[in-house]
Protein: BQ5605_C023g09700 protein
Amino acid sequence: MPVAEIHELTDGPNRRPRLPAKSRVLETTADGPASAILQELYSATARTARAAAASTLAAYVQKNGLRTLVVDAILEDLTRAVKGKVVAEREGAIAAFDELFRKLAKAGADPYLVPLLPVVLDRLQESGKTASIADNAEKAAKQLCRLTPPELAPKTIEQLFEVIEGNYKWKSKACALQLLATFGASAKDQVAERLGEYVPRLTASMRDTKSEIASQAEKTGIALCHVLTNPDIQPFVPDLVKCMADPTTVPAAIKRLSSTVWVREVDGPTLAVVAPLLTRALGERGNIVQRQSVVLITNLFKLVRSSDLAALHAPAVLPGIERIIESAAFPEIRAFAEEAKKAVDASKEGAQVPAVDHLSEAAEDEKKAFTETQGLVAKASGEKPDAFADQALSYVAYAISHLTRKRQFDEKDWRESYVGPYLEPLVGKASAESLSVELLKRWMAIDKSRMQVDQEDDDDEEGEIVTDLPFSLAYGGLLLLNHTTLKLRRGHRYGICGANGCGKSTLLKAINRKQIDNFPQHVKAAYVEHDIDGDESGITVCGLMLEEPRIEVDEKEIRKTLLELGFDEERQDVPINSLSGGWKMRVALCRAILMKVDLMLLDEPTNHLDTKSVNWLQDFLNAQSHITCMIVSHDSGFLDAVCTNIIHYQKKQLVYYKGNLAKFVEKWPAGKAYYTLSDSVVKFTFPAPGSLMGVRSQTRAILKMTNCTFTYPGAKKPQLQNVSCAVSLSSRVGIVGPNGAGKSTLIKLLTGETVPDEGKVEKHPNLRVAYVAQHAFHHIEEHLEKTAMQYIQWRYQDGVDKEQAAKATRAMTPEEIELMKTPIVGRTGESRFLERIVGRQKLKKSYSYEIKWQNLQHKFNAWLPRERLIELGFSKLVQEFDDFEASREGAGSREMSGKLVRKHLEDVGLDGDIAEYNEMKGLSGGQKVKVVIAAAMWAKPQVLILDEPTNFLDRDALGGLAVGIREWTGAFLCISHNQEFVGALCPEIWNVESGMLTHKGKAAVAEDAFDSQPPTPGTQTPAVSTPALTTPAGSTPAMSTPVGSGDEARAASTIAGAEMAFKASKGRKKMSRKQMKEREERRRLRTLAFLSNSIPGAVREPDTDSDEDVDGKTLRSTQKKAKGNLTPSTIIKKQSEVETAPTAPRSTF
Structure:
């Protein structure tokens, strides 16, 4: 407040006329105590006397109240004295200010003292004999800056800017800049909100000719910018500040910022500081700066969560972007600019129009709060507030407006910091506290009306109210729920719905951990999870209940409850780790019942449960009339079956709807997303599967099991018995059955993870299978310190899949190791010992393999047919090399550059920055599943097998996965209890129960399960697809070939023990020396004929290896083989020679 305003606070008749400067006499209303104290203060010559007088003055104000500062004209006279020419009076006034600021250092005095800050700082110009005045002035200014509470700090900061931007001496400005820097720590949030305003106001000081001011201004700018919470920008704070002082450094700063990887959320303060720099950079003419600027804008606005925030800052950059789109010289820059415009437009989509500036909105509330508070004070005091009261009420109104804007309604803060202390000098302490509470209630009601979401009245519903309390919920720095209500009734089952990441699971965990403010202590809550902690995995079911401290019943009652939940006497004493997912869920429910909870919190309860267990869980929950349930689930059928109410996240509020999910969708049509599978949010795109040699039919069996039996070690009966099945390229199979029936075991046998005790598993030698296990994390649990990109690059860095080596079928048994020591006798009678297989080439309808012998050089390698190697017992070595070659054809054909790996991970719905920079140990369950799927699909497999893929994927990701699989052209097998997912993708069902496999035949897929329909028949498949594999998009997948059919019989090898045989492409034979000499002779004669040709312009007949006619016989052309195949390139031969040529040049052993 300017000094002129202080004069206005005094009553006119009580002010005495100003005396001449030579006769400085106290100007007060009367010769009262204040007059005598001030006169003693001005006349004191010793420092101790001045300090005593100043202390007396401060005590007088403390005793008689703040109004004496104005009524007795204390502030007015001290201001006159400190600006006067009499040294003693200046010294006394500064001493008085210092003492007043310290003694009145509490909220409530700052409306009258803070306006004195420029006056005090002006005294820093003192020097020489009066340097002590400057020292005391600096101390007083520092004390004054500590008066105001954080939310009112902007009031003090404005007084400092009055000095910084005004016509003050350099020492005053430098001190003001130092004091301003301190607010970066004391009022961090308030400075952060206004950082975009404060830092640019320092620009003039940074360019000041006085080096002390310029240097301090730059330091202050850096100090203020340290309130930024975004770690990505913190290293560049000095660069940002330097750009304001020196615009020529803008290109260098933009270069550094554009090369930074932005992964954290971009908040308001970060955008406020960077936006002015971007605006200037967009105006640069250099092509490099323009390109870097638009790239930086793209990266920043993609990370802005608030559409209103993006809309507020978009006008600063959009004109520059549009100018570059229209006028940039290079198409590349224009393309980058268009991407930047799309990013900005997308980030502000859904924002209010016009853009909302919440600080400006608070100004309207401030006017309303001022008028309202005036009325309350007038009513309480019985008189209209005067100028003295209005000064305090202006601070109260300012605080109320900004506290309401931030929705900070803590009663203690309002009563003790922001409202009560300012009203106390006007109406007394008791009335001030009551008015504070009344104002709090009024503005909470205003806020609630603004944030009100229409919802149904539940007063007519049955059931005792378990809890009905207002609360807010935050996770980290993100506000999830803001001043909403948790209202639950006994016996009701609430399904919680909302967008991904809105905080559904966080709410359940916060309730369980008692992190909800004012949550009733008498309400017992239990978080029900289907899995048991590792330290509990070794104990029995009954033992777990007995060791639970929250269960206060005896063993007899425990066993009785377990029996009611289906646990017979034998199962009550089995180890928990031997139970399936469904029985583990029953254990968790039993524990909650025995704890006698009022509130049961279920997070994805149907994960890992078969249909029978889900039906049991539905019946169990529906029968609980005294337990309230809160359920988070992506299973829409389950929510329909059990929910009596739906709680929906809307605008950071909990909105309650009566009825199940279907009733909710009728009232909220956007909720249809919980019933359909859509890739509108997360999109999965899988690479086209590679071709398979000899497979020209989509229904040809490429993977099959025949009469397989498998028993786990120690088990009394087989897990699978006499099981047969087959998979073709067109297979879309859903594998269903009860928990523990052997579904996962069946898949492990098919993929080679385990070996059958009886029967055989056969597959195409070049087949590549992508398998994601039920507990998907086991694929990456040894690599959690790597990023997703690093994991894929490690796994395929040699061009082959390292996961293959870990399979049980690749482990050599002692018998097989001993077999390696058995000599192989050749046709000549020579005995050799096999070391390893190093090559493969086609041999008729099968393969021959190049063998490296022990203790012999490579020149002695020999080629042996596949059938002989298998007959000799080396089937694992043959299969291992087949997998090696298949992997080379898939992963080996792909470049392992970071850019391509990142793009591959983005294609399965994982954010690119997370994939490249975040270690996998910090990823969520859904993100880890995406990494595993992406890694499995890198090798371009022909078969994808997913075991319970819905367990860790949210609704959006599940929809993207379903659409991605629907559009993929390879074979697909899926184990899942999610009938919606299986029914939408799998027309063929394999039912596994009691160790037996039953083929349930074909069924039409549920096309209505998708939000979007598949392409119409005849749509072209992607160009990268292999024609031989491509199924017309949208067509119904062809039937798998039944086991034992004629097709499979024809596919089977005629050699006992061999895998399925596939017809190889006809090979090219190596030319003999005679043929090569004949070819050279033909070429020589052709050259001589050309040279002897006298006809001008004659063209020489070219040398070529294409079909040539020699002696009336057509020779076959050579063809370059794929990289990695060890078969020599074919050279032209006569047809008769092709038929009689030796099969393998080195298979003479």
Notes: The first helix runs from residue 3 to 8. The two ends are 105 Å apart (CA to CA).
